[in-house]
Amino acid sequence: MKPANKYFLLPLLCLVTISFCNTANKKNQHPAAIEPNRANVIFDDSSVNTIHVLVALCDNKYQGIVPVPAKIGNGQDPDNNLYWGCAYGVRSYFKKSSEWKLISKIAIDSIKMERLVFKHAKTNWYLIADAYNGKYIKQCTIDYLNACAGIEKDTVMANHKPLGILGNAKLLAFIGHNGLMDFSLTNNFENADGKHRDAIILACISKRYFSSLLKQTKANPLLWTTGLMSPEAYTLHDAISSYIKNETAEKIRNNAAKAYSLYQHCSVKAASKLITTGW
Fold first, then answer.
1. What does the H/E/C string look like for 98-119?
2. Which residue intervals of the chain are DSSP H helices?
3. pLDDT in tens, 126-159
4. What is the phi-psi region of residue 150: left when phi exceeds 0, alpha when psi lies from -120 to 50, beta otherwise?
5. Helix-then-strand count for the chain, H and E
6. CB neighbour list of residue 114: distance below 8 Å, 6 or more residues apart
7. How far apart are CA 45 and CA 27, in angstroms?
8. Strand-strand pairing, 49-56 and 171-175
9. What is the spatial distance between Cα 188 and Cα 149, in angstroms, rounded to a whole number?
């Protein structure tokens, strides 16, 4: 797919942080995280591989971001949101991909506003993507780290079979603003089951901000970032394509960097410095 998004703006290279240097601006207060009561469903089916993507919708009002146009920065409107319904949002981009087929679309609640289930066209991989109300980015971050640690596990039904999500997924991805620039977490994310899941965190400067927490979970940092970035879906898409082929972490990083380079009109060298793998 060629980059032709009418919302593509180079100033959106990082939608989050010029303001990370100015987090004293209190107009964007983050609501307290709500810990939902969720069944901790242990699931182990090696014949079905799952990827769970948690997307914190872009939100001008509730996140410490450099404001984007109001229509795409409404964190309560998935259909028009930059990270979901826009051309390079997770929902739109994966729906247009020949590699994936959308098999389920579910409205959950006011926090997780929409869940999509995709089936890979050629393999037995499934991708589940959740759109979190941008107001609850803190909860999205907590859920992501709990999943990486195996603290929270669940399943979802699709094609008449259960699919593992959260800590039951093999690969977990976080997409959106780096909320850790705006708030701190005191939760305990110590690994609960001895499993080492793969993790992708496409958010600005995610390696610096997530390192200490991700180490607790014992997850493998497959991809994260060293600088400011735009976490649109093409980077995730091409990284996952490589991951499903069981390619090396470095190859996955290279493919992600090439996608980022193409759509952001920067050099592959620059993109490769931005997107890194491992500790």
1. CCEEEEEEECCCCCEEEEEEEE
2. 90-96, 137-149, 206-217, 233-244, 249-264, 268-274
3. 999 999 999 999 999 999 999 999 999 999 999 8
4. left
5. 6, 10
6. 78, 84, 91, 105, 106, 107, 108, 130, 131
7. 46
8. parallel
9. 10
Token pair recorded at residue 144: 């992501």
What pairing do the DSSP bridges indicate for beta strands 153-158 and 125-132?
unpaired
Rg (C-alpha) for the chain, rounded Å, is 17
Assessment of whether the complete model's pTM goes beyond 0.70? yes
5 or 248, greater pLDDT: 248
pLDDT band at residue 32 under the 50/70/90 scheme: very low
Residue 161, classed as helix, strand or coil, is strand
Exposed/middle/buried for 144, CB within 10 Å: 0-12, 13-18, 19+?
Answer: buried
User: How far apart, in whole angstroms, are the C-alpha atoms of residue 101 and residue 150?
Assistant: 28
How distant is the alpha carbon of residue 40 from its chain centre? 21
**Residue 177 per-residue DSSP state:** -
Query: Which among 55, 54, 51 is positioned nearest to 168, based on CA atoms?
Result: 51
Residue-level pLDDT at 2: 45
pLDDT tens for each residue of 78-105: 999 999 999 999 999 999 999 999 999 9
- The owner of tokens 């990082």 is 14
Q: How far, CA to CA in Å, does 23 sit from each of 56, 122, 136, 247, 269?
A: 19, 45, 17, 39, 31
Token duo for residue 69: 């146009």
CB 56 within 8 A of CB 142: no
CA separation for the pair 192, 203 (Å, rounded): 25
